Amino acid sequence: MTASGAPRVDHVKGYCGLCIARCGTIATVADGRFIRLDPDPSHPTGAAICAKGRAAPELVYHRDRLTRPLRRTRPKGDPDPGWEETSWDIAIDQIASAMRRTAAQYGPEAVAFSLSSPSTTAIADSAPFVRRLMNAFGTPNLVWALDLCGWGRGFATRYVFGVGSVATGSAGGAMPEIAKTGCLILWGYNPSFSRITHATAAVDGLKRGMKLVVIDPRNVGLANKADVWLRVRPGSDGALALGLANIMIERGWYDQEFVRTWTNGPLLVRSDTNSLLKAEDVFPDAGRGSLVAWDMRSKSIVRYDPATGQYDPPPGHLSLRGEYAVETIDGTVSCQPIFDHYASLCGQYSPETVARTCWISAEQLTEAARTIWESRPVSYYAWSGHEHHANTTETARAIAMLYALTGSFDAPGGNVLLPSIPTASITGEDLAQQLAPAIGVIERPLGPARWGNVSTHDFYRAVLEGHPYPVRTLIGFGANLLLAQADPVRGRAALSSLDFYAHADLFMNPTAALADIVLPVASCFEREALKIGFEISEDAQSYVQLRSKIVPPPGEALPDTDIIFGIAKRLGLEMKFWHGDVDAAYREQLALSGISLEQLRAEPAGQRKSLSTTHYKYKIPDDRGIARGFPTPTRKVEFWSEIFADQGYPALPDIETPVFGTPEPADMFPLVLTCAKPSLFCQSQHRALPLLRKRLPYPEIELHPTTAAARKIQDGDWVEVRTSSGAMRAKARFNNTLDDRVVVGQHGWWQACAELGIAGSDPTDPNGSNFNLTVDAAMRDPISGTPSHRFNMCEIRLLRADADSDRRGMA
Ligand SMILES: Nc1nc2c(c(=O)[nH]1)N[C@H]1C(S)=C(S)[C@@H](COP(=O)(O)OP(=O)(O)OC[C@H]3O[C@@H](n4cnc5c(=O)[nH]c(N)nc54)[C@H](O)[C@@H]3O)O[C@H]1N2
Ligand SMILES: Nc1nc2c(c(=O)[nH]1)N[C@H]1C(S)=C(S)[C@@H](COP(=O)(O)OP(=O)(O)OC[C@H]3O[C@@H](n4cnc5c(=O)[nH]c(N)nc54)[C@H](O)[C@@H]3O)O[C@H]1N2
Ligand code: SF4
Ligand SMILES: [Mo]
């Protein structure tokens, strides 16, 4: 209260950390209570906020928040864990002791960490410190959903461009420069629900005449504003990308100059071995590493040196198509340029094949290809729709190659490697001594484990079968594995059989319920965090903010960062953690930026550090005067990957499209099942907040009215969705824009909402509502291990026709 008795009202600028959009916000605090959140239009991501942001005060003050460290007193498997409150001191002590014990017996790699996705929680505040702790402790094993989220867009595409084609939270990569783009492609991505800052930018783009292509089985978000909406059959995106490329190549709708100069398309492939022709195959004196292309002007071969990116002699006109007889040391060998092989691969995806495979007409396909070609510069963002498949790696590569045909990479209005404020890395790579190979890297050497990211299924196997080595302790920050991942039954068995599991979270969840220790975490509104760059544009990238703590956390809850520093200290790693001083860590991060921590603390609204974007960075000469090119083995955008070939994978994207009607007879499971995220909740969270839950009380499954009518299902009826792997329940929601062979569910449902009298459900119960019980965990991408969350065959059955049996339907 103020002296006059009126409430004291403060407005605190910051940003919402609840999802990847990281919207700039203004929090209203009245007499010390956080009462509302509004957008901050002066912030580069502050044009709007969503319903989840508006519900933030409900999240902060929710009665189910964890407030004290809890210790299990009854065995795992007992329906009552017998949680007992304990002190931070004891909890951290137990964690450090368990980590030490496991390391002494099995090696430090037997301690794994898990993390929620930074796209759906505020864990980005602390994720670099988790990596640092892992490096300092000596384990490479971070279990998080990277195989489902970030792999396709940020990592698989590195095998084409050398960098991610779209930036992931941490990996870096090129972002669509929406403000300048001629044509934006949203591929299996609905930013209207999932990243409203991109949606706002796209709407602005449409106002100035930008073309929009949306590729989604549903007409959702901006699809109804799109110039072309391709209603792709789930799981066939790779075939679609090759089919679009086929039309573009056939009609000459591709940037030949870019392909010739900046891709490895001209390099020759030997037909006898199906491998790249090496200069040493032709010239006995050639050094190792050089390759060969065909010059049409001189009608002879030219050498190509990837170390310099130069052809020798300088070619008149490199060939992209045709077959050439080359005199090699072993005799005459017929060779074709890589691009010719790629074009032939695309040729297998004729409009008729695409119509059959992807359920998209030849006219629409051509219209999309024409729009893309005629509206350059093109930019794209592909997300969950293409990432949640057992063919995501090759699909992501095929989309990236289609994109390469436009020549728009790093062009103004293309996918641009935006500048960033110089910072120092704090993940402590230098602290890591000889880490063991991450779990999964032996089976899938090019997959997420190459970068220390362990898929949940490999983690379960290491715990249950000790393969490739045992994992006995898990320290989790958020990750709700039982809901996020397939096979929760195996997940429960794995987590229950650990020697020790600690989980830090805002709320108890079904995964945390299997822990030995549960730690209460301060929400993003109750802790400081440093954010350098807001990703989506040059302006956003130039913004630095030290998010203020708006209100204190409930009870004894602590920021993740403090917990990590606490564990480090107890492990004797304090010296590697700035002697326990979080500010010192921020100072180190900021040292190169020219912005001080004091400045940021004094100005919660944030600071701008002007940046300017240089485009076409691949053309810029390095200090030897050699154009930088792309950071790939051939220094070019790669249609053909020797890295893939060396590991026994096809060098060109060989797409396996899941077949409609399999694996079971089509009459048992005649419908294709995919899923999408609702706008009101993030993943498995937020169902306890009445403001949100009252707008979507129960999980839904979207289906076409004729599909429903054939099963006597009415809009709003409870139905069972069954696949050969399992079942779940949801309410039917009619959607007449869907193909009548496709149904679309939602995952993440388990939580009760006591305020609305809605019960929760067990994630392993087929009468509950865990979508991921229907996922076939064995259907996995051979390169990344990604399970197929978005393609399975299913059947839908009416449970009850009476609309008011909601409570029983959920039970
Ligand atoms: N069928 C299907 N499955 C999917 C998906 C799908 O679309 N369909 N999406 C996949 C994707 S893209 C992802 S990223 C994963 C997500 O999987 P997860 O990363 O596990 O995300 P959530 O399920 O939302 O669980 C996040 C947990 O973190 C907690 N949390 C929130 N903020 C914080 C914080 O600041 N600190 C800590 N310590 N905890 C916090 C929440 O309370 C919650 O318990 O799920 C994947 N699974
Ligand atoms: N409201 C909200 N926002 C979020 C999240 C959330 O859970 N809720 N999660 C955050 C996270 S972790 C992520 S990964 C992002 C994800 O953001 P998005 O990628 O936008 O998420 P989704 O809605 O899961 O999937 C996008 C679209 O893919 C379509 N789709 C389904 N199957 C296919 C297919 O086979 N091919 C194609 N082309 N499309 C298909 C769906 O119909 C859906 O409209 O959102 C982030 N923001
Ligand atoms: S979209 Fe909503 S939840 Fe995500 S950051 Fe913005 S306000 Fe927060
Ligand atoms: Mo995600």
Work out the helicity level: 25-40%
| CATH topology value of the domain at 83-149 and 422-608 | Rossmann fold
Q: In whole angstroms, how far apart are the ends?
A: 46 Å
> How many DSSP helices?
27
* Class from helix and strand fractions: alpha/beta
Low-confidence stretches: 807-811
Q: Ligands bound here?
A: ligand MGD, iron/sulfur cluster, molybdenum atom
> What integer is the average pLDDT?
95
- How many beta strands in the DSSP annotation? 32
The CATH class name of the domain at 83-149 and 422-608 reads Alpha Beta
Please report which band the strand proportion falls in: under 5%, 5-15%, 15-25%, 25-35%, 35-45% or over 45%: 15-25%
How does the major sheet shape up?
A: 8 strands, mixed
Can you put this structure into words, describing what you see?
- The chain has 811 residues and is an alpha/beta fold.
- Among the domains are: 83-149 and 422-608, Rossmann fold; 671-808, Barwin-like endoglucanases (Beta Barrel), CATH 2.40.40.20.
- Helix content is 26%, strand content 18%.
- It is built from 27 helices and 32 strands.
- The strands form eight sheets. An eight-stranded mixed beta sheet has the order 5-4-23-22-21-6-7-20. A six-stranded mixed beta sheet has the order 28-30-29-32-27-31.
- α4 runs parallel beside α21 (560-570) and α17 packs across α19.
- The longest helix is centred in the N-terminal third of the chain and has 19 residues, at 88-106.
- The protein is globular, with a radius of gyration of 27 Å.
